[in-house]
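Usage

Read records sequentially. Each one opens with the input sequence:
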Amino acid sequence: YVSELAKMDIFVYISKVEGFGLPPLEAMALGIPVVASDVGAVSEFIQNEIDGIIVSVIGTESDYCDQIIDLIHGQEKRALIGDQAKIKASTMTWKNVAEKYSKYLTAK
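and closes with the structure output:
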């Protein structure tokens, strides 16, 4: 799986319902820019235009295509987002995520 994932230049994750969204995070860990729906935790751990691209879950096929084409033609942007994605993914350890959720669940 990882060897196939590593061959990608862009990872596209279109989902209407999502829990955590591990596949986008796995792609990010390899420095692959992600274009994903704003569902579940994906929209919590991806900062749009910084370490990934978020498209509205009610977006059209054209909305996704526009973002993908932009990354295809924007080699520098693709590299910058990929670099930031790898940094972000390195902070998403089970311990860090558990601490964040714990703080969220205990907040009033």
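Summary fields computed downstream for this record:
- The first helix runs from residue 2 to 5.
- The radius of gyration is 14 Å.
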